[in-house]
Amino acid sequence: MAPSQQAKSSKSARGLLTGLVAGVCLLAGLTAATAQAPAKQPPATPQATPQVAPQAAPQAVPGFWDPRRRPERPDLSRLTVIRFLTETDYPPFNYTGADGNPAGFNVDLARALCEEIKVTCTVQMRRFETLVDALASNRGDAIIASMAVSPQLRARVDFTDPYYRVPARFVSRKDAVMPEIRPEYLEGKKVGVIGGSVHEAYLKAMFTDAELHGYPNDDALRSALRKGEVDFIFGDAISLAFWINGTDSGDCCAFSGGPFVESRFFGEGIGIAVRKGNDVLRQALNWAMFRVWEKGRFTDLWLRYFSVSPF
């Protein structure tokens, strides 16, 4: 089931996972793809008509850990259990499995971190809007619920390093896929976007020569592309990946160009929240996430849940 909004962090005011917010944040360690930021200046020899890609790009797995910055193993002796909090219904990140137990990408990642730290791990599901209060009242130790890092939340909780971001991407019909998209390539092209969204603000700032068409919701936006009313649509790549791979798209469309990840528009990333000042747990989770990524377990987990990569 595709996520139904830009980033889940916006049920209360998230920035992913309409809350998925100066600079360009580059993804470190992408497999088979590179994060793409639109050029502010045209290239020395502009390419008026880019070659059409014959097929979709290969699967790409994001990685946000620099192997040159290996974290030191912290003192884990004071950790005996980690009580994770997650939310109830945001598949494929968190949901109730067939056996009635918590399941999803976030849940499996939490268990992998506990295995790496070698502590007991529990996962409790709660409504998203209650998670921060539950953490503050010591009903859990960490929140792993696709919560976007924001200045507002930083005032209430501390965050680990991000373990994924919510990029933005263009989607076109399959017969018009572009391997790369720059502002000059979309001059005069019709681009659909949700009106009033951060994605519209980004296009207005960076793709000034495109012909923008605003739509009230995802259904109207995606229908416009299927019907050929627009040449491209632009939005939350995670939601779009599930739509592309689902039955609603009718196998019409595919990603064009690479991901756009500027934090000024699309947020600082998705992290695990811990209580303010709990540096022991925060550092332990950062160390464990690096180890899980280094061993290839993060890649395995990502590929299990994302058959069409948002990156």
TrEMBL record:
N-terminal signal peptide: 1-37
Domain Solute-binding protein family 3/N-terminal: 81-309
UniProt keyword annotation of Signal present: yes
Keyword Signal: yes
Sequence ranges of Low complexity compositional bias: 46-63
One Pfam family it belongs to: SBP_bac_3
SUPFAM superfamilies, A to Z: Periplasmic binding protein-like II (SSF53850)
Alphabetical list of SMART domains matching this protein: PBPb
Disordered: annotated span: 38-72
Gene3D superfamilies xref list: Periplasmic binding protein-like II
Keyword list, A-Z: Signal
Superkingdom of origin: Bacteria
Protein name per UniProt: ABC transporter substrate-binding protein
Record organism: Bradyrhizobium betae
Organism lineage: Bacteria, Pseudomonadati, Pseudomonadota, Alphaproteobacteria, Hyphomicrobiales
